[in-house]
Amino acid sequence: MRKALFFFLAISGLTACNSAETPATTENQLPMDVHSSYQRSEARVTHLSLQLNADFEQQILRGVATWTLESNAADTLWLDTRGLVIVSVTDADGNALEHQLEAEDKVLGSPLWISGIRDVSHVKISYRTTPGAEAIQWLTPEGRAPFMFTQSQAILARTWIPCPDSPGWRFTYDAEVEVPKELMALMSAENPTERSADGVYRFVMRQHIPSYLMALAVGDVYFSKLGERSGVYAESDILEAAAYEFAEVEDMIEAAEDLYGPYVWERYDILVLPASFPFGGMENPRLTFATPTIITGDRSLTSLVAHELAHSWSGNLVTNATWNDFWINEGFTVYFEHRIMEAVYGRDYSEMLSYLSLVDVREEVEDFMKTRPDDTRLKLDLAGRNPDDGVSRIAYDKGYFFLRLLEETTGRERFDDFLRGYFKAHSFGVMTTEKFLGYLREHLLSEEEWNAVGVNEWVYERGLPANIPDVVSKRFGEVFSSIKHEVMDENRCPKNTENWSTHEWLYFLGQLGQLRDAGNDQINADLLAMLDSCFSISKSTNSEILAAWWLLVVPAKYTQAYPAMEDFLVRVGRRKFLTPTYRALKETGQIEEACRIYSKARPNYHFVSRQTMDELLENCQGI
Ligand code: BES
Ligand code: ZN
Fold first, then answer.
1. Active site residue 457
2. Is 308 among the residues known to form the active site?
3. How far apart are CA 464 and CA 466, in angstroms?
4. CATH 3.10.580.10 fits 474-616, yes or no
């Protein structure tokens, strides 16, 4: 009977109908994951029931995590934790269970084992987080409402929930969260749109998700409807701007469904976080977490929404088995993102994004080849390292160009059919690099095509293969010629810039940087002052443009722009912007300036950004 039921669930999982429960995983074996102690567990869990209380004063979560065991035949359960205080562990009736936290590993935290669970159906863990819990940022700004949010990917879920913290294991959850009455709580689950009277919120996530997609945010946010199944949450002062910025999300969802099959998560909402959010976006299921720095007033940075939405298939539906397979999440998602943008805004637009991807990945590869060449391979080896080390342009953009090459080799129609079949066949499952390659060989590429692409070289070797697709962007071609003629030859500001989108500006600024790196001394503080007087770039409200601008400003020591740069670095905690700016300061003999700004800005950064900047600016201690 059990078997038959499992079979039924497995099949319904494959077709992934809307609100139906889905199987824990379509695999019966957990892939080898060096970043999780769940690996050692005999027992398997299928559902989490979470009770939490958010204490803003002490900056801790207190709660109970009750795990449902898949069968009660095993004797020991191993879960991941880090910095958690375990208060008690019992079965459903309150009988104490033997348990212990193992010694802390610097990267992985302290595994928790619970034994004597034969014949036990539920394991109930009372615990609390500690104020430094790495996933969580507590913000209590003066004169503003408090805010807290979590960021679980890659292995930080264990800092706020004792859990099987591996992308290779999925579970459903429900939660009851108590927060200060004036605030609203939201999770990666079915969400409220109104405040509750008593500050208690209940959540259900019926689809099986891996731990890195567990998310919670608490803040003074309000909801605004976008489409039938989409909306945005934000603090009241930016809600309207956010609703305008994301108005086209329904078009994106439809474009995505036309490409690769139904959206199975029912709703797609976006939560706009405070500017200290360390990422651009995070694909928490049903509720993308997004940085406010993409709200520009002109909808020019919404490819980020396309990206997080695309993860609803690549990542959340078919999940990288381990962090070594990270490109399976991000490479597919960048490919899908560009396809959504092409469908909604046209090929010229998406080719600009692709061109910028190409520039990014070339730079990253060149840089990595000097210091960490093995990290330029798609399939990573992160054993003994923090999986955060694998977050680079390689997974994203080398992954993207590999998939684009597959498309160009087989033709779009065959490739799209293949991808539709891939998402359907592996829904709510996990994907290793090897399994994908097997599927690719079986369902798409002939031996001849396989060899022509050079699949093994792309996946397992360093650098960028010679057959990387070429991107020709007409729009950037025009920008290039104005750099050459107007800026370089005639030393004046380019004229026809009214129609430039954000992406043309990014290309323009990036090209000037390349010319400087190639030794062109025309790219100096005088030139920047001239450009700034024509275009007020230092006063731009577009964060991407600002971040690209600082990379010219810093090496040229164009100090008039430093106050604006300092404001930016203090206000924004998005790591992608911080790392290159601080690095530029450091590498151009301005470490004192970097340290001075960092000491002021650091309190506002989330742990993820702090960790990276602490490492980059380690010398600041002595300064
Ligand atoms: N899932 C990632 C963010 C992430 C990756 C968090 C690894 C922790 C570890 C998210 O989908 C992402 O890729 N965000 C990008 C935006 C995107 C448009 C490339 C970002 O934050 O910049
Ligand atoms: Zn992503």
1. no
2. yes
3. 6
4. no
- How confident is residue 18, by pLDDT bands cut at 50, 70 and 90? very low
- The pLDDT tens digits of the residues spanning 572-586 come to 999 999 999 999 999
The architecture in CATH of the region 1-219 reads Sandwich (2.60)
With bands split at pLDDT 50, 70 and 90, how would you rate the model's confidence at 29?
A: low
Residue type, 623: I
Whole-number Cα distances in Å, 571 to 232, 292, 595: 22, 11, 16
Mean pLDDT of 197-206: 98
Give the ligand with the smallest distance to the CA of 575.
Answer: 1
- Coil/strand/helix, residue 617: coil
Cβ atoms of 579 and 587 within 8 Å: the answer is no
**Pocket flag, ligand 1, residue 424 (CB < 6 Å):** no
Q: What's the CATH code, domain 319-460?
A: 1.10.390.10
Probe target for ligand 1 pocket from 152, 330, 544, with the most ligand atoms within 8 Å of CB = 330
pLDDT of residue 415: 98
4 pLDDT higher than 90:
no
Closest residue (by CA) to atom 16 of ligand 1? 280
Instruction: Give CATH 2.60.40.1730 domain extents, the chain.
Output: 1-219
Note the helical H segments in 210-263.
236-245, 249-260
pLDDT at 7 over 70: no
Which part of the chain has CATH 1.10.390.10?
Answer: 319-460
Do residues 350 and 339 make contact, with C-beta atoms less than 8 angstroms apart? Answer: yes
**Where in the chain do CATH 1.25.40.320 domains reside?**
474-616
**CB atoms inside a 10 Å sphere around CB 4:** 8
What's the CA-to-centroid distance between 329 and ligand 1, angstroms? Answer: 10
Is beta strand 45-55 parallel, antiparallel or unpaired with respect to 184-187? Answer: unpaired
Beta carbon of 307 within 6 Å of any ligand 1 atom: yes
The reported pLDDT for the residue numbered 104 is 98
- State the average pLDDT for the chain: 95
Query: Any idea which fold 222-312 has?
Result: Zincin-like (3.30.2010)
Percentage with pLDDT > 90 across the chain = 94
Helix, strand and coil in the chain, % to nearest 5: 45, 20, 35
Residue from 543, 535, 563, 318 nearest 427 by CA: 318
Average pLDDT for 8-34: 51
Ligand nearest to the CA of 330: 2
When pLDDT is averaged across residues 268-276 and rounded to a whole number, the result is 98
Active-site hit among 283, 308, 330, 544: 308
The answer to whether 109 touches 81, Cβ cutoff 8 Å, is: yes
CA 414 – CA 412 distance, rounded (Å) = 6
Tell me which amino acid residue 594 is: A
Any ligand 1 atom below 6 A from CB of 314:
no
Q: What is the pLDDT of residues 370-429, one digit of tens each?
A: 999 999 999 999 999 999 999 999 999 999 999 999 999 999 999 999 999 999 999 999
What pLDDT is recorded for position 72? Answer: 85
Domain with CATH 3.30.2010.30 in the chain: 222-312
How far apart, in whole angstroms, are the C-alpha atoms of residue 318 and residue 424? 9
Instruction: Select from 214, 272, 282 the residue to mutate for testing ligand 1; criterion: most ligand atoms less than 8 Å from CB.
Output: 282
Residues near ligand 2 ion, CB 5 Å cutoff: 330, 333
The side-by-side arrangement of strands in the sheet containing 216-219 is 136-139, 147-150, 216-219, 184-187
User: H-helix or E-strand containing 55?
Assistant: strand 45-55
